[in-house]
Amino acid sequence: MTLLVVGASHRSAPMDLLDRTALSEADAQALLHEVFDSEHVAEVLLVTTCNRVEVYADVARFHGAVDSVTAALAKHAGVSREELTPHLYALYEDRAVEHLFDVASGLDSMVVGEQQILGQVRSGLRRSQEAATVGRTLNGLGQAALRVGKRVHTDTGIDRAGASIVSVALGLADEALGGLSGRHALVVGAGAISSLAATTLQAAGIGHLVIANRTHANAERLAALTGGRALSLEHIAEEYASADLIISGTGAMGVVIGTAEIAKALPQRGSRPLVIIDLAVPHDTDPELADLPGVVRIDMSAIAARPDAAVSEAQIAAARVIIVEEVAAYVGTREASRVDPIVVSLRARANEVVSAEMDKLRSHHADSVPTDEIERAMRRLVSTLLHTPTVRMKEFATQSGGHRYAEALQALFDLDPNAIAALTRPAVVADDLPPMLS
What we know:
Layout: E1 2-9, H1 15-21, H2 25-36, E2 41-49, E3 52-59, H3 62-77, H4 81-84, E4 89-92, H5 94-105, H6 116-130, H7 136-156, H8 158-161, H9 165-177, E5 184-188, H10 192-203, E6 208-213, H11 216-226, E7 229-232, E8 245-248, H12 259-269, E9 274-278, E10 295-298, H13 300-304, H14 313-338, H15 340-365, H16 371-397, H17 403-412, H18 417-424
Helix pairs in contact: 2-3, 5-7, 5-14, 6-7, 7-14, 10-11, 14-16, 15-16, 15-18
């Protein structure tokens, strides 16, 4: 089997295309099952974040699997295959492992080091577990990625040096408004990123804070935590005339704040500027808002372009060292585990030989020979003889071309390939994940 990732991100595709490829939960589930049902695929893990959609798969045929994943992505994202394909990347084996570790560590984010990615990777792993599309291979890879991401953040501090998306965005708003203290802010949404925005605004001394959300109870909960006022989503237009700052991060499929509604409120605002921050993918706000007089629209592209969103070269280098080390350790462990079935089969064959010989001995000398002692001695002897070859085979398995040693051992001892295959079949892991690493 081969590990493969096919995906699109802010590095390979324009933001408007990423907007259109954002998957609803129903589409994500359908995509997982369609790829999983492909004849070329044994396991599937889907990772979706603000700026990417990626399908990780354990596959039997590389090109066939790439074709299946590409077709499923285009179908469930509602984008033509011809438009999507030029913006897709496909990585396999060690490079696929390294890429997921980069993603989980925040090194592949628009704002390098942002920590929210860990929760998004974890959500993707949980979704794939609940859909029963991951087994031993991808469950292990996903959990390794979460651990590596946590280690990079802890050991390098890139999540502190590389400002979060929210803090960078609010820095831009502060510049545009000449300060946030005492201002009137409207936060649309009550999820993780909107909640972070609201709490950051509270700490910045915002004067009046309104939380609008489709589920009013969630708006009330966040408003209570931040000293704000809750508002139902259908009434947000009432705040457009008085707000100095609007932040939206709902994750809705479609525009939440349109140009016409904002334009209608502009005469009531006089000369006061309005800053609109769009933290959602797909966009919550119409890009044409930026063309309105007195309106500043800030989206993810503008945030990523900020110099203060960058981390130091030394921190990135330190993160790379960790990831190279972790990829080598993961690949080495994976390659060593691939020879385990051959080791098990070899030891089983040796035990069969000992048992057969002991049966012959007991049938002829049961009364005159201490067969139990002889059997224990023979099994110790066989175990000793096999110890060094099996240890060395696992060592060789981590090296380039190491699989040939396992194949040679299989051929020399005429080990049953069907029995070995049975030992390597992926088992679906249905256990719950550990608490989120963040």
